[in-house]
Amino acid sequence: VDCAEAGTCCNGQMGSDDVTSGCQWLSCVQACALVRTPGTDYFGDAAKVTAELCEVTGGCWRGGFPQCGHCDHGEGPGVTVGECSGNCNDPQDCHVGANLDARVEPPSPPSRSPSPPSPSPPPPSPSLPP
Length: 130
Known about the structure:
There is one protein chain. The model is unreliable at 103-108 (pLDDT under 50). This protein has a two-stranded antiparallel sheet with strand order 1-2. Helix 1 packs parallel to helix 3 and helix 2 packs antiparallel against helix 3 (92-98). The protein is 19% helix and 3% strand. The chain is mainly alpha-helical.
């Protein structure tokens, strides 16, 4: 799942073991990982991540991830990209990460191969006189 492709500012060191995010806000990658990691209190529960983590700032360690540090905007830790400041997550990125399953491309419709025509029943066999 690629947070950068979903239009987020901070992707929390995408592709690295270092998922530190900045300014005490959970990043896209962090929220996405919590919803999709079996065994966490947040597994499969985007609403819980959104309510308990995305809407809260203050503190540097929530959901098992650090939120005080350098944020990676796809150009390396702390590099400013577009409207985002170098060491901060956009607070909305957490919501994006928690709900990325809703942004997945829809499955392509199944290919419909023409079905073979149903065989016609055999004609009734003529009854032979006794």
